[in-house]
Amino acid sequence: MKFVVLLHQDEQIWRDASPTEREEYYRRHDAFAQVATRTGSTILAGEALAEVETATTVRRRGEQVSVTEGPFAETAEQLGGFYLVEAPHLDAVIEAVRELPEYTVEIRPAIDVA
Q1: Which of 17, 36, 96, 111 fits as disulfide partner to 21, beta carbons 3.0 to 4.6 Å?
Q2: Mean pLDDT by 10 residues, the chain (114 residues)
């Protein structure tokens, strides 16, 4: 089963992080990958995202389409990255996610429409 792991955090925390703190973040991501592998999971993809100010939002309401610079919603935490993980079950993903640094993490099953 595939799961999308969405990483949310206040971007200011990353901007203010020292080089040592950033290295710790990277170490925690490596630990996440190691636990994912140990639980029988495979990380299929993962990326950090550019800052929220670079977002473009496209909305469709009926035949009306609007394009807006900026994120969909203004919140204290922003979507900063994601992983796509193939795992035997949700608990395997949760176990690996516990290794990540200070994020709010949303895990959602991907629906196979094929």
Answers
A1: 17
A2: 94 91 95 97 95 87 89 74 96 96 91 84
